[in-house]
Amino acid sequence: MSKVETVSADDHCIVTDAVAAAEKHTDGEIVTVIASQSDDYRETPIYWAVAAMFFVLACIAVFPAWFEGWLSVFTGGWVHNYTPGEYLTIIMLLLAVTFAAAHLLVAWKPVRLALTPPAIKRIRSRARAISLFRVSAEKRTMGLTGVLIYLSMAEHRAEIVADSAIAAKVSPDVWGEAMADMIVELKAGRAGAGMAAAVRDVGKVLAEHFPKTTDNPNELPDRLIEL
Which pTM was predicted? Predict the structure, then answer.
């Protein structure tokens, strides 16, 4: 998926209009959220820095002659018989420098995101979506018919989370069409259009299982929430 740029004012209008239109035919309530990122992944630099240290240590153990040759560079090519204490001190300093350098490199946001495993991104994005759902939609409607459509820009992940009444009638794989239609637009860099496409598909499912009744108010905001 190509990188989606900042959400525009037009995107907000497109999504808000799509939610309002979809809810005309259902008692379901659709909440839309676009987040710049689901998590900071602050542990990623530490993991990679530790891995770099072990890699350097393994190289020293497997190729001791290479390491001794590298040390001779700092003594002008002269052979020096290091004591065990000196040798260990040099290795510890090298590992400390390796850790600091690797941590500094991976702490840079683009590198940190690139080196975070996809499985971790998927888990964190899902967790963020569920957390936001609990705050914004869960048990906040009379019929327990709230749905959250969540898009995390940095991870290129989207999630749909539904309240209990909907989950009891609609299998999670039903949302596949909404996700697919959203991805088509996101690949073209149209975040608002992608979210609106998902809203329309979700609205059709909700209209089928929870058609509009006369006494059901608009209980959740239609506007796009940008985090």
Answer: 0.77
